[in-house]
Amino acid sequence: MNAHTLMEGAADAPFYLPQGDECEIFATAARNDLPLLLKGPTGCGKTRFVSHMAATLGRPLYTVACHDDLSAADLIGRYLLKGGETVWVDGPLTRAVREGAICYLDEVVEARKDVTVVLHPLTDDRRILPIDRTGEELEAAEGFMLVASYNPGYQNILKTLKPSTRQRFLAVEFDFPVQEHEIAVVARESGLDPERVKPLVRLADKLRDLKGQDLEEGVSTRLVIYAATLIKQGMPVERAITAAMIEPLTDDADVKRGLLDLVTAIFG
Ligand SMILES: Nc1ncnc2c1ncn2[C@@H]1O[C@H](COP(=O)(O)OP(=O)(O)OP(=O)(O)O)[C@@H](O)[C@H]1O
Ligand SMILES: [Mg+2]
């Protein structure tokens, strides 16, 4: 099976243009009960990729946006008071484990440490989810798959995955698509003519070269789509670029001026 046949696997799957062999890796991991970790900068297509693959494989998808307050109970479930009665309510992870769905933990490094403890028995060959509060020990249903993502660019020493956690996952690195692919993606998502998208993508590439110097992070494909969408709606190109590709990147007036010089160099 190649990426092309996979992309056409489900007619109503969200559009995703593969960058490499990530669709095959995902499909193979899914068939073999292996968890998958997606690494890459913001707005490069990780979330879209997961929705596309879930639809293509015909598996339900539970997405959890992890944050620094997210606890194991948020994932597993808790007792809630309903009409005077205490009832157990499954969290998204438990639901996915029971139903054989894909559970996608977005920005997993943000989650509290007790979350990783829950993930360990699920991500080795035991594939079990112990629920302490109810005394249950759930075996993952066929089709259950754990997918997690994070952005290594923001990593700090306090927020990183322990080797014992990361070495339970297959991992794929994502980056921004090559220019030709990014033009196709932006044109498709915004409806703007590819010829008019081209210079926006060239600008994005130049802005990405500044990562680590003037900018913390290169401009995302998401922002290029925003710029193209504004232009498609009739906004003047320079205004659209400022609002979508310059202002979101920095607050520093000097850096902004430097970025605008790049815009002038490309758009004249
Ligand atoms: N290869 C691709 N095929 C189709 N669309 C893409 C692709 N790459 C990026 N996109 C587009 O870029 C937008 C941003 O991608 P997405 O939300 O998946 O990024 P992300 O990597 O999950 O970012 P974050 O880390 O901020 O959550 C998507 O809405 C989609 O329109
Ligand atoms: Mg995302």
TrEMBL record:
Annotated protein name in UniProt: ATPase AAA
Metal-binding in keyword set: no
InterPro entries in the cross-refs: ATPase_dyneun-rel_AAA, CbbQ/NirQ/NorQ/GpvN, CbbQ_C, P-loop_NTPase
CbbQ/NirQ/NorQ C-terminal domain location: 182-265
Family: Belongs to the CbbQ/NirQ/NorQ/GpvN family.
SUPFAM superfamilies tied to this protein: P-loop containing nucleoside triphosphate hydrolases
GO MF annotation terms: ATP binding; ATP hydrolysis activity
Species whose genome carries this gene: Thioclava indica
Pfam families found in the cross-reference section: AAA_5, CbbQ_C
